[in-house]
Amino acid sequence: MNHTLLSKSARSDRHNPTFKRIRVLPYFTAVALCIIVLTPFIIMVSYSLRSNAELYNFNISLFPQNPTLESYRALWTQNPHLKRIVVNTISVTILSTALTLVFSTMMGYAIARFRFAGRKPLWFILAMTQSIPWIIALIPLYMTLSSLKLLDDTGILALVYTACFIPVATWLLVGFFKKIPSELEEAARIDGCSQWGVFLRIIIPLSTNAMCAVGLTTFIGCWGDYITASTLLKSKGNWTLTIGIMFLQGSFNTEWTQIMALGTLITVPVVVLFLWLERYLVNLMAGGIKE
């Protein structure tokens, strides 16, 4: 009897206009947030497809009236250093991401599975680094590298990025490794697998979701960084893409359409990588390892 009354009450609530509005509200909120976030990118792409004449026209609409790729062509033909800058950015980002994944994976697994002297102090130091703004450490880092004559080097910049992202990457991976059932490792050892074999054949394949999330975070951080790169790199031949925008800002003229084109080129790889790794991120947020 009570079950029947509850069912009728639930059906009546579903037909209630107020109930429908409450259910639809989260969807409207999500759409509104997406519009707020995507609008600057839409404007950036739109302005990159305009000519200079249309850019300074007072009748500007959201979408270009005569779309053109002239700003992209001019970006490559009028800036001889740009190709070198692209190579610098790709090499620094890939090297930093690879080193961060290698070292944070090994360190995270060691902290999660082994008991060794200094484990708790190490874990405490990693936790403390998350509460210190990076800009505070950037000034003494600059002074140290300057005294050692190591400024203006893309290899040093890659190592700095690696040192910055290893603590947060290790922090994330430790929590993931603790969720992996230890019975899987014990079974592998019984079958004659060494410790490195357990790590490479059991832990790494099971950690694909977490490693993709860490790799994506590191890639985005290195690819889009401006403060650290502009502080440590001085010569134009060693600049990265985010600093390369300065090429397009002159004393008397600023190429706004080319700046928007370069901003689009910086954004596209991140979007493509995110869409490619989306399924791994969804699996990680869904719970990762299932016992």
Helix content: over 70%
Low-confidence stretches: none
> What distance lies between the first and last C-alpha atoms, to the nearest angstrom?
40 Å
Mean pLDDT: 83
Number of domains: 2
Helix/strand-derived class?
Answer: mainly alpha
What's the CATH H-level superfamily name of the largest domain?
MetI-like
Report the biggest beta sheet as strand number plus sense, adding barrel if it closes: none
Which second-level CATH architecture of the largest domain applies? Answer: Orthogonal Bundle
Which range does the strand content fall in? under 5%
Radius of gyration: 25 Å
In the CATH hierarchy, the third-tier topology of the largest domain is known as: MetI-like fold
List the helices and strands and how they pair.
Elements: H1 2-14, H2 17-48, H3 52-55, H4 70-77, H5 82-113, H6 119-129, H7 134-147, H8 154-177, H9 182-190, H10 195-206, H11 208-223, H12 227-232, H13 241-244, H14 256-276, H15 278-285
Helix pairs in contact: 2-14, 4-14, 5-8, 5-11, 6-8, 8-11, 9-10, 11-14, 11-15
